[in-house]
Design a protein that fits this description.
The chain is of the alpha/beta class. The chain is built from six helices and ten strands, in the order βββαββαβαααβαβββ. The protein has a single domain, classed as P-loop containing nucleotide triphosphate hydrolases (Rossmann fold). The strands form two sheets. The protein has a six-stranded mixed β-sheet, sandwiched between helices. Strands 2-1-4-5 form a four-stranded antiparallel β-sheet, with helices on one face.
């Protein structure tokens, strides 16, 4: 599904070149539940942005379903993300003036077709995630765990092939965070969604079938295993 080959990413900060990734290679296969672990500044979020077509590598190659993202323009990348990729963020990234349902369907706004269809899918997703009674609540009226479930529903609205989650439990207590990861594992198992999670929390490795350890912009180790927690 996604293949990164010898990916390097550099940023220019004044006269200094900062290398965030240094020759990273990784393969994400359909149905994987990947957890990428590394300390702050290790390059894990940069790697997620590149694998998710939010950014392009300085050198190396990233193929998504066989297409090289370095050869795509911004419009083609946007269309690729819209069709195939969903995102979940640590800070939820919900619009405070919109209610839960409106936040879920916001990625469909530029799309043609019957808006009622998208609203109905949003309602179904929120109900599936236990928020059927919170459709009209704004983010300020929801708990952290509920807001993260809204962001999960939003990531699913366009029925993507793969979902990237950047520190999805970072702003949640341990119990709520574990519940959120269990929801993602259920979607992985029952809806056949591929997940890629980047985190500093090594406890999430127990949920993964593919574990990736990154430090100083380099992958130290990759392991594939049976999932411990279901």
């Amino acid at each position: 599904m996604i293949v990164a080959e010898n990916v390097t990413k550099e940023y220019k900060m004044g006269e200094v070149i900062v290398r965030a990734l240094a020759g990273v290679s990784i393969k994400i296969e359909e149905g994987d539940f990947v957890v990428i672990v590394g300390p702050s500044g290790s390059g894990k979020s940069t790697l997620m942005h590149i694998l998710g077509a939010l950014d392009k590598p300085t050198a190396g190659k990233v193929l998504i379903d066989g297409e090289d993202i370095s050869e795509m323009d911004d419009w083609e990348l946007a269309m690729l993300r819209r069709k195939k990729i969903g995102f979940i963020f640590q800070n939820f990234n919900l619009i405070p003036t919109l209610n839960a349902l409106e936040n879920v369907v916001i990625p469909t706004e530029p799309l043609p077709g019957d808006k009622t269809k998208y609203d109905q899918r949003g309602i179904e997703l929120l109900k599936m995630l236990g928020l059927g009674d919170r459709l009209l609540h704004k983010p300020s009226e929801l708990s952290g765990g509920q807001r993260q479930r809204v962001s999960i529903a939003r990531s699913l609205i366009n029925n993507p092939e793969v979902i990237f989650a950047d520190e999805p439990t970072g702003n949640l207590d341990t119990v709520t965070g574990n519940h959120i990861v269990e929801i993602m594992r259920k979607l992985n198992k029952e809806e056949k969604k591929t997940f890629v999670i980047v985190t500093h929390d090594q406890s999430l490795l127990d949920y993964a079938n593919k574990q990736v350890f990154i430090r100083d912009g380099k992958i130290e180790k990759q392991t594939k295993k049976k999932i411990i927690k279901n």
